[in-house]
Amino acid sequence: MNASAPADETTGPRRPPEAPEPREPREPREAREPREPRWLTDEEQRIWRSYLHATTLLEDHLDRQLQRDAGMPHIYYGLLVGLAESPDGRLRMTELAMQAKITRSRLSHAVARLEKNGWVRREDCPSDKRGQFAVLTDEGYHVLRRTAPGHVTAVRQAVFERLTPEQQKSLGEIMQIVAEGLQPDEAGADLPWLR
Hints:
By secondary structure, the chain is mainly alpha-helical. The protein is 53% helix and 9% strand. It has helices at 29-32, 42-70, 74-84, 93-100, 104-116, 138-158, 165-182, and strands at residues 90-92, 120-125, 128-136.
């Protein structure tokens, strides 16, 4: 019997084929096929939409209050507060962007508007030719003092007066967990103030 003859049911197994050329190992089939996303449950969807609705409405509420009382959006108010709370009313622009959680270009635009209003000025950093400080002016400080009472009332009415002390504590803990998850410590993290 010819050793290379094909096998059939009566002659037994055929000769093993020659080994094929080695190939790259293949990924398991599951890894090659896109996985179905883990869709939100009905309850998770309800919670997520409630969060989106509340934060969108809250930001609009605070923007309208600050525009009405001081002619500035909420983000500008936050920048003035950040400067007022820093030593000598000054912060490096990069630190201010990190504190406000915004991109450097957005900060630069905002500071330009605040400068135009006379509420902030920029100063060059003596130790870094490319660095700049944002500095709160006396006029900016007075605007902040005049605006703060109305703003804190708006925040208190919209959030704190609607929640029990336990709910307030839970909200703070939850938001801290979410913020920490979105702000990794590793180098190269894609964070707004690094863009």
